[in-house]
Each structure stands twice: as structure tokens, then as C-alpha cells.
Design a protein that fits this description.
This is (2Fe-2S) ferredoxin domain-containing protein. It contains three helices and six strands; from the N terminus they run αβββαβββα. By secondary structure, the chain is of the alpha+beta class. A hairpin with a 5-residue loop joins strand 2 and strand 3. The termini are far apart.
């Protein structure tokens, strides 16, 4: 039995040696291994090519009244902001030209505001912290500007 195992081990060493010597000869002289082709993944042109709006769904999940008491209103500030933007875009006939997506935490965590990221191929990426005040109108003007491209 030992003789058989020794013969098998010697045969395996011979196979590995032949394999490694043929692999070394196949490399180009620049000593870089050959590149492995990456298979293609299907792509598409999205309907929201006019922009992508990411709204953090974790911002101001806990609502507070004026006296710093926690209250439950049923909707978060991020959902409220998305609904407001959706109604404004529908009113102006721009709904559907950009895509709104709720995301998990974007790592900014502002007090009393919602993190919003706008992305458009022509404009690039812009990040905002939007509170309930006039900043909504400013954000809306940025979104409307994305539709010009």
C-alpha cells in the first residue's frame, strides 16, 4: 500500500511540475499574467436619465414637537419631503423625468434635516441637507434645473 501511495505522490508531483512549467511559458515577457476577459452584463438606458434623487429614509425618523417631546405623526420627514417634491413636479408637468429613491442612512445624520443627493450625468453629483423651511424650494429649483439638460 505504501508503494502505491508513493507512486501516486510522485505522479502528482510530475503533473504539477509540468503544469507549472507550461504556465510560466505562456506569460508574456512583461511578467504580467494574461488578463481574464470579463463577461458582459446587460445594460439599459433608464427612463430617469434626467436625474436621480436619493433621499435618506433614516433622517429625522423621530419627529419632535416644539417642546422637544417625541411625537408620532405616522410619516417621517423624508417621506414628507418626497411627497412634497412629487406633488410639485406633477403640478409643473415634470413628474417621471427623474427618479426618486429612498435610501438607507447616508452617514451624515443632520439634526432636523433630510440628506438628499442629486445626480445627473451633465451636472454631476450634489449633496444637500434640507430642512422644512425655504430649503425645499431651493432643492426644487435644483431639480428643475436638472431637467434642462
Amino acid at each position: 500500500m505504501k508503494k502505491l501511495l508513493k507512486k501516486i505522490l510522485a505522479l502528482l508531483r510530475q503533473i504539477f511540475h509540468q503544469f507549472s512549467s507550461t504556465q510560466q511559458r505562456s506569460y508574456p515577457p512583461a511578467s504580467h499574467p494574461p488578463t481574464i476577459p470579463i463577461p458582459p452584463i446587460p445594460t439599459f438606458v433608464p427612463q430617469w436619465h434626467n436625474g436621480l434623487v436619493l433621499v435618506c429614509s433614516q433622517c429625522t425618523v423621530e419627529q419632535f414637537d416644539g417642546s422637544s417631546h417625541r411625537i408620532n405623526r405616522g410619516t417621517t420627514a423624508s417621506v414628507e419631503l418626497q411627497n412634497w417634491l412629487k406633488s410639485r413636479l406633477k403640478f409643473d408637468g415634470l413628474w417621471g423625468k427623474c427618479r426618486f429613491v429612498s435610501t438607507s442612512c447616508l452617514g451624515v445624520c443632520p439634526q432636523g434635516g433630510v440628506v438628499v443627493v442629486l445626480h445627473h450625468n451633465a451636472v454631476g453629483q450634489q449633496c444637500f441637507i434640507v430642512s422644512k423651511g425655504g430649503e425645499r424650494e431651493i432643492l426644487y429649483s435644483y431639480i428643475k434645473q436638472m431637467h434642462k439638460y
